[in-house]
């Protein structure tokens, strides 16, 4: 009986609580609404201490909520995406035909571009993309050889309101006999969707094609299949591009402004929420966040109460001045997730602070972006100032340095953006011979590290320092021979004796490029080291072709008439071991800009400044042989072979492009060639009146291909200790050098 009373009492209590909660909560809500109507204010779900009057730096809730242009739920967006891209689950294993790429082994990665139709007018940006592919080492004109296909139709701008929108793409693409539902095709896109939602709709079915797209959403990105690329303007350079703005070892790492933004503010539509709230963090001192409504045709019809004030404040600051003098740059989303401001910040070494939720960052498969940017959250805008304030000086400097590395390696030109896209796809196709993350994220960047040479870091000269390893203790001498062998007193015979006496010499290879037949081994003198004579096939560029006979990391390149002492060879080799990524040698040359001819010039004058060390007597790493043959285009090597000239200049261009550093000259020597007899002067290549003019032309041709001048001037020279000092010769290790 007592238990029954207890249960009844508990039931009555529960009913009372439910009634109290229901009626009491309703009364409270009605009272709050009534009070709000009387005060004329909007009722906010937070206490009055966050009132705008007390804390003007905070945003109203309605400013941070979803705007009218982005009311789609995640499910609706997913349904729209799958309706457009029926193969949204594509992966390389399911939607790519590997057999097309592996028919020719490692050389099977070829890219074919469909010819443009008559009267087809593509955008300037798409023309640059196709030009980059056409000039790459992967391009082929034969579709039967192709591993990858690129459309000749411009697919960059798929906004139906744009003047560059190409209609009826579905029907046109289906007419391609090799389309095959998009398999093994690569489609480039910068702009998708249109007002007001700017969805991922491209206006045609890409099928099983790989999508290289800017502003990719992580929800729609197909990992290991698609490639996220940066949004770049039509003025982005085709080749080379400007260097980053960070001066080496800039101290202090922080600049005048801590954080900056200057850009458009959208009053309605997608992207308006984030930019409408940016004014809350602006203080006009160390944080400058400026927006303007003055853009578009009808901006005055839609302007709000804040527009006039914002426009006046906007004009007070210069954008370029802010870029150069800010430590962090806000990169909020625009109508789409990506923004031109991203690349601008990277170049300026202004650390990007991203406010673009869901953006798949460019080349995210290979680039470790946490080392270069700070990823914020659009919903937590007000936390950004405290976040960047908390970043220490060492971290700031590291982030800024990484922005420069990434800009120079992958983003400074359309060429680099396109080649990075192709290299990422190639690494997926040949995954057993591919770059690792370290290669992509360390100098000199993945484009200059060819995995076909090796996939081991210790085999590349520019990783020795970071790995804490040293190059081998021996070198291979390669002597370029062009004169017939007629006497044992020829300069090449003396050179063989000098080089073979070096305790560091492992072997000697003679590259025979004479018009006369290759002499038998018996014609050559006995050597204390292995001697190999190979046929250079009368090609000047053959001296830098990969040679399986080279067993050492160091290569000593020599002309047949070079005059050196054994001590000079030893000293230069020891210097090279400290700088294995550079060219180290004796004969210097230089380049200069001729403002009269508006062209680059070449000089052999003896001055204190140089930018080239001739490979007639120089050390370098054997990897540069592979890079010379497989990275440079055949057109440049053909130029060298056609003129029988400039191969040494081209090698200097290549090494300086890799290192961004000058070569190193060792010990002063004005003459490094054997004085020829009057009879042989006429046969010397440098005696040809056209020889010097050809070298001038070569410098300009090489600079044109690279898109900039990679050669770096230097006044640095390394001499032995006590070199030419007035002390006893007994105290000097390299006594013979002073008599050279």
From TrEMBL:
Phosphoprotein recorded as keyword: no
Keywords for this protein: Disulfide bond, Endoplasmic reticulum, Glycoprotein, Glycosyltransferase, Manganese, Membrane, Metal-binding, Signal-anchor, Transferase, Transmembrane, Transmembrane helix
Gene: LOC112229926
Function of the molecule: Glycosyltransferase required for the biosynthesis of heparan-sulfate.
UniProt record similarity statement: Belongs to the glycosyltransferase 47 family.
Localisation: Endoplasmic reticulum membrane
Ranges for domain Exostosin GT47: 107-389
The protein's name: Exostosin-1c
Cofactors that this protein relies on: Mn(2+)
Mode of membrane association: Single-pass type II membrane protein
Gene Ontology biological process terms, A to Z: heparan sulfate proteoglycan biosynthetic process; ossification
Alphabetical list of Pfam families matching this protein: Exostosin_GT47 (PF03016), Glyco_transf_64 (PF09258)
Source taxon at top rank: Eukaryota
A GO molecular-function descriptor: N-acetylglucosaminyl-proteoglycan 4-beta-glucuronosyltransferase activity
């Amino acid at each position: 009986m007592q238990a029954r009373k207890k249960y009844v009492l508990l039931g009555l209590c529960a009913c009372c609580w439910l009634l109290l909660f229901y009626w009491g909560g309703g009364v409270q809500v009605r009272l709050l609404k009534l009070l709000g109507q009387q005060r004329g204010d909007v009722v906010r779900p937070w206490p009055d201490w966050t009132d705008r009057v007390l804390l003007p730096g905070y945003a109203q809730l309605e400013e941070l909520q979803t705007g009218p242009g982005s009311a789609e739920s995640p499910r609706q967006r997913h349904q729209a995406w799958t309706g457009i891209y029926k193969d949204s689950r594509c992966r390389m294993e399911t939607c790519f035909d590997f057999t097309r790429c592996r028919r020719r082994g490692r050389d099977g990665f070829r890219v074919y571009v469909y010819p443009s139709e008559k009267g087809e007018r593509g955008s300037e940006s798409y023309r640059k993309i196709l030009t980059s592919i056409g000039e790459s080492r992967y391009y082929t004109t034969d579709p039967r050889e192709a591993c990858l296909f690129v459309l000749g139709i411009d697919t960059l701008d798929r906004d139906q309101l744009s003047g560059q929108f190409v209609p009826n793409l579905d029907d046109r693409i289906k007419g391609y006999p090799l389309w095959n539902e998009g398999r093994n095709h690569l489609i480039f896109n910068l702009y998708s969707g249109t007002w007001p939602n700017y969805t991922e709709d491209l206006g045609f079915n890409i099928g099983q094609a790989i999508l290289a797209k800017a502003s990719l959403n992580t929800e729609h990105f197909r990992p290991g299949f698609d490639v996220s690329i940066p949004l770049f303007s039509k003025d982005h350079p085709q080749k080379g591009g400007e260097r980053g703005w960070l001066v080496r070892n800039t101290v202090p790492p922080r600049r005048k402004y801590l954080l900056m933004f200057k850009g458009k503010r959208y009053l309605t539509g997608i992207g308006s929420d984030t930019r409408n709230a940016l004014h809350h963090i602006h203080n006009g001192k160390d944080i400058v966040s400026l927006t303007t409504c003055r853009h578009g045709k009808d901006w005055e019809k839609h302007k709000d109460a804040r527009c006039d004030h914002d426009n006046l404040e906007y004009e007070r600051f210069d954008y370029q001045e802010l870029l150069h003098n800010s430590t962090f740059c806000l990169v909020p989303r625009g109508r789409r997730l990506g923004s031109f401001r991203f690349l601008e910040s990277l170049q300026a070494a202004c650390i990007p602070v991203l406010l673009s939720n869901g953006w798949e960052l460019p080349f995210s498969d290979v680039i470790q972006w946490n080392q270069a940017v700070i990823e914020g959250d659009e919903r937590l805008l007000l936390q950004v100032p405290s976040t960047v304030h908390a970043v220490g000086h060492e971290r700031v400097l590291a982030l800024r340095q990484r922005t420069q590395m990434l800009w120079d390696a992958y983003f400074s030109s359309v060429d680099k953006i396109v080649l990075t896209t192709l290299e990422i796809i190639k690494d997926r196709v040949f995954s057993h011979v591919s770059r690792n993350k370290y290669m992509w994220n360390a100098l000199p960047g993945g484009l200059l590290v060819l995995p076909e040479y090796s996939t081991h870091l210790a085999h590349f000269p520019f990783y020795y320092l970071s790995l804490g390893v040293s190059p081998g203790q021996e070198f291979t001498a390669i002597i370029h021979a062009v004169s017939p062998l007629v006497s044992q007193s020829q300069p090449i015979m003396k050179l063989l004796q000098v080089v073979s006496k070096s305790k560091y010499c492992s072997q000697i290879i003679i590259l025979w490029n004479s018009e006369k037949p290759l002499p038998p081994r018996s014609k050559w003198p006995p050597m204390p080291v292995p001697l190999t004579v190979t046929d250079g096939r009368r090609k000047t560029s053959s001296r830098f072709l990969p040679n399986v006979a080279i067993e050492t990391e160091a290569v000593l390149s020599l002309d047949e008439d070079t005059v050196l002492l054994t001590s000079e060879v030893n000293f230069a080799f020891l210097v090279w071991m400290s700088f294995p990524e550079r060219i180290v040698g004796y004969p210097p040359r230089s380049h200069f800009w001729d403002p009269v001819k508006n062209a680059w010039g070449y000089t052999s004058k003896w001055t204190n400044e140089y930018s080239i060390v001739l490979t007639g007597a120089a050390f370098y790493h054997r990897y540069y042989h592979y890079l010379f043959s497989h990275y440079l285009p055949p057109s440049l090597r053909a130029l060298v072979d056609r003129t029988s000239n400039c191969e040494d200049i081209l090698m200097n261009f290549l090494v300086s492009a890799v290192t961004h550093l000058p070569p190193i000259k060792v010990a002063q020597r004005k003459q490094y060639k054997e004085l020829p007899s009057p009879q042989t002067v006429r046969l010397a290549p440098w005696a040809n009146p056209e020889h010097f003019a050809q070298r001038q032309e070569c410098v300009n041709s090489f600079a044109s291909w690279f898109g900039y001048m990679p050669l770096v001037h230097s006044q640095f020279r390394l001499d032995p200790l006590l070199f030419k000092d007035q002390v006893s010769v007994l105290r000097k290790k390299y006594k013979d050098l002073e008599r050279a």
